[in-house]
Amino acid sequence: MAAEPRTLAPPERRMAEVSAKVRLGGYDLLVAHDIAGPPDPRPGQFYMLAAGERWGGGSGERPYLPRAFSFARVRRHPDGGTELAFLLEAVGPGTHRLGQLSPGDPLALVGPLGVGFRSPAAGTRALLVGGGIGVAPLLCLHDELSGTWHEGVEVLLGFRSSEYAQAADLFLAGLPGGASPLLAVMTDDGSVGRPGLVTEPLLEGLERDPAVTVYACGPPAMLEAVRALCAERSVRAQLALESGMACGFGACFGCVAPTREGYVRICVDGPVLDAELLETALLTGAGHS
Amino acid sequence: MTAQPAGPAEPPAAGAAPPVVLCGVQLSGPVLNGSGTFDAIAAHRAFGDELLERFPFAAFVSKTVTVEPRQGNPPPRLWEAPAGLINSIGLPNRGITGFLSHDLPRLAELPVPLVVSVMGFAREELALLVERVGEREEVALLELNVSCPNVETGLIMGADPAETAAAVERVRPLTEKPLIVKLTPNAVDPPAVAAAAEAAGADAIALINTLKGMALHPHTRDPWLGGVTGGVSGPAVRAVALQQVAAVAARTKVPLIGMGGIASGGDAVDFLAAGATCVAVGTESFRDPGAGRRIAAEMEVILGPQGANRAYRSGKGRPRSPAGL
User: Fold this and answer.
1) Residue of B32, B11, B1 lying closest to B312 (CA atoms)
2) Contacts of B157 (CB under 8 A, 6+ apart)
3) Under 8 Å CB-to-CB from B83, ≥6 apart: which residues?
4) How many of the other CB atoms lie within 10 Å of CB of B42?
């Protein structure tokens, strides 16, 4: 277990400060300055987030529990500490409240939590497959691998429409030397990139060169399609799973996924799991919003 | 039956409040965790040794151990309720053999006394669990989780005073260690169950467990939880818990561990005033893994370290005339 890609978290909730909120089509990129957290969370790890004020008391006295978010980007803050970026979409009371935050507001967080992505297998290209808001953990993985993983990194992203596909621009910004990633964008309505599902260019890529390590995060149907395509071809894949969680650190046993080894807790044994461990990535109870 | 002091008594840290004594076991403060609300082994993976340096609780209560290993209920297991949570976890655990070989050595490394929670689906199962856990020197106290059916009688043990008394009487001679009975609030008369447990030899009473509840899928209106029903916890149940603690305090003399929606030092002090000797934090730890420490510190601000300690030890927190009961 020593080699687990996991950075340890301080054992209590702390307050960060929202430093920016950037509208990206259908999403918000929420940027927070985390003074007390570790500077080196591993791509694929996540944080439990709650607004520092007025968390609760909304419709139905929700939200009450914090919400789990993979971080999308990390960098050193010029004044010390770490700047963390999270991709948000308002789908329920928790994400709605987080979306109301403005620069200067407190953001309660616990993290980084869980196990992140492992390095690609030697001699394989890294193939990153993201769907919708699931592109978030692939962004920091891409930041880390570009320029260091010389076998190559390719990114395949799928979105509902051009509005959401604006998140793909994040993969273009901040690359060293203005390098341009190998990037394919698919949309359901064809308003940007190619029309269709992200599994189409994945299949083309696997048939062209099966010596890849696949990294995927997205909706359950996409993850299951990726899992099945990779399993048929004996391609190594790491899937970042999502679940509703109460705690994020293994206390509540609420976020279990069935695997070939029985139930595992997505928060402490994942959220990144080897695809081979799963009979299906179509998980029930990803949690209500 | 007189409970003997058992388990490691940690000297209080410099500058900390004087210890609280629960059934002869010295604790560095009054805040415990509720069983099943904190997995110290998983938390150590997430937080590393800083967890041990700033351990949130004055004693650690294990997740409930059963005779056989259990996978737990199918997901979904969680539903966010108004100011609370409904869970349907289903007591996943390694079973007694796996617990003793895998979990107990790790839990013994925690810097606080250990309470092991056990549940049997028949009195003989409970007896086996108490014997095997009670003989381990790493264990300071045992907690009997009686929120389960007795498969022989079909009754929920903790819902019925006679069932509870019979269970406690069966296991009482099997260990010298203090026995805590964890009550269910889903009973007609929890104070009667508590009084029966005390008369049968329980050394302390912990309450409340979760209240039975359910949630429906917002579109299909089918049960949301894989286990169909679940247990409600969090601030939503605090008023119910406070009343039950006060009512049980009026009927018993053994120390009480009060819990149910405690999220602040002020909440915890309410439970002491209602008659509890110690309090436990559960769902609030899900929101903040350091909640136990924070709540203990807030209690000290409210009560002052000496005042709080005197109150716990003398039982002065107990209301003399339980108004409104």
Assistant:
1) B32
2) B146, B147, B148, B149, B150, B163, B164, B167
3) A56, A61, A64, B234, B235, B236
4) 18
Place of tokens 């894949």: A237
Write the DSSP assignment of B197-222 as a string of letters: HHHTT-SEEEE--PEEE--B-TTT-S
**Which residues in chain B are contacts of A254 at CB distance < 8 A?**
77-78, 87, 89
In the numeric block, which tokens belong to residue A74? 């990390």
Tens digits of per-residue pLDDT, B58-102? 999 999 999 999 999 999 999 999 999 999 999 999 999 999 999
Residues whose CB falls within 8 Å of the CB of residue A175, separated by 6 or more in sequence, listed in order: A146, A147, A181
Is the predicted ipTM greater than 0.90, yes or no?
yes
Residue of B126, B141, B148, B257 marked active site:
B148
Using the beta-carbon criterion (under 8 Å), do A12 and B226 form an inter-chain contact? no
Residue type, B64: T
Summarize pLDDT for B243-289 with one digit per residue, the tens: 999 999 999 999 999 999 999 999 999 999 999 999 999 999 999 99
Rounded-to-integer distance, Cα B65 and Cα A3, Å: 30
Number of Cβ atoms within 10 Å of the Cβ of A270: 25
CB-based contact, A56 to chain B, within 8 Å:
yes
Residue type, B159: A
Determine the distance in angstroms separating the CA of B41 from the nearest CA of chain A, rounded to an integer: 9
What type of residue sits at position A37? Answer: G
Cα torsion B277, B281, B282, B283 to 10°: value is 140
3-state secondary structure A10-50: CCCCEEEEEEEEEEECCEEEEEEEECCCCCCCCCCCEEEEE
Do the beta carbons of residue A116 and residue A3 sit within 8 Å?
no
Cα radius of gyration rounded to whole Å, chain A? 18
Averaged pLDDT of chain A: 93
* The pTM of the whole model exceeds 0.90: yes
**Distance in Å, alpha carbon of A5 to nearest chain B alpha carbon:** 11
Q: Quick: pLDDT tens for A136-158.
A: 999 999 999 987 888 899 999 99
